Amino acid sequence: MTDMEAPAYEPTPSQTVGPFFGHALPYAEGPEVVPGWHPDAITVRGRVLDGAGEPVPDALIEIWQADGDGRVPSGEGGLRRAGHGFSGFGRCGTDPAGRYWFRTVRPGAVGEDAPYIAVLVFARGLLKPVRTRLYFPQDAAAHATDPLLSAVPAERRPTLVAVAEDDRTYRFDIHLQGERETVFLGI
């Protein structure tokens, strides 16, 4: 190589993130989008599972949503709420069994979309978080006209709809791969 030739650089291989989610990102109030005494509080819970159906114990789940009237919070928020209000944002790390939970409210519809909660999953083996949506079974009529759900093959749509366990508890398991893989959204 002469002094005028630039050296040939090879790109380094991609690396995955973590697992480091147990430090600093989760916080005590993270799963509480509304306080427990809120009259419209519901619980959304589930598990994050890998392609073999095994729990992912070090995943981090974030949710973003509108309130019950379909309003998206636009004012100042905070990781630590003053015991009242609705933030529209929650964060929960999974436990050793891959479980997570959130206390929130059922969102109202925004625009033409059926009511939904936006879900981001950060986990080992992922270069970037994967995005999906959680829809509610009570909104089946709105699901028929939702622009995103309409683009998903009918046999895959159930992976985006939570299961009602009772009138205030919903289960939404997230399968990262495999036969039951949750539908994930592009950018």
UniProtKB/TrEMBL annotation:
The protein's enzyme class: oxidoreductase
Keywords: Dioxygenase, Oxidoreductase
Signal peptide annotation: none
Entry's Gene Ontology molecular function annotations: protocatechuate 3,4-dioxygenase activity
EC number: 1.13.11.3
Entry coiled-coil feature ranges: none
The Intradiol ring-cleavage dioxygenases domain, residue ranges: 40-178
InterPro entries named in the record: Intradiol_dOase_C, Intradiol_dOase_core, Intradiol_RC_Dioxygenase, Protocat_dOase_a
Oxidoreductase as UniProt keyword: yes
One Pfam family, short name: Dioxygenase_C
Keyword Electron transport part of the UniProt annotation: no
Membership in a protein family: Belongs to the intradiol ring-cleavage dioxygenase family.
NCBIfam families: protocat_alph
Protein name: Protocatechuate 3,4-dioxygenase subunit alpha
Organism: Actinomadura gamaensis
Lineage: Bacteria, Bacillati, Actinomycetota, Actinomycetes, Streptosporangiales
